[in-house]
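Whether sequence alone determines local backbone shape is best considered at the level of individual chains. When preparing material for the folding task, we compiled for one chain both its residues and its backbone structure tokens. No coordinates are needed to read the tokens, only the vocabulary itself. For completeness, the protein is quoted in full, as a sequence line and a line of structure tokens:
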Amino acid sequence: MNYLTLALRLIHIIGGVFWVGSALLMNFFIGPTLRATGDAGRQFAGHFMARTKFTSVMNASVYATLIAGFWLYGIDSQWFSSPWMHSSVGIGFGIGAGFALVGFVTGFMNGANNRKLAALGSQIQGKPTPEQAGQLAAVQKQQGWVVPVNTWTLLLAVFFMATARYLVF
């Protein structure tokens, strides 16, 4: 048994489950709840983003997943030099990795926007000033495309990673 491969697979899968599960929870449930609950949502977001370890744990799971996945792909492809890369399995994992990288970028954009919203939420007392309202609108406009792209790319990454061994191209 190859213990390195086993360890990398466990890191990749467990980290990916946490990463994608947390992102989907944020995108489908927590984000919409924050937007719908006004002042209470802003208070929750301020506490959640600034006073919990969520961001640190999320970042660790993302990096662990990506590094382990890159290492696994490197092992399977003999460091990007074998015909395996052009097989259905290699292509499937490669497509999944591409979606994961887009999810990585949009996830960090989403996190940055969430931090901006949390910071604004902690500054706003009652009704936002026109400047604060403009900042909120700009962040929410960007979130309007970042969140769906993040959600779909992560779901597609999971799909291709889970089915790569069964795909036929």
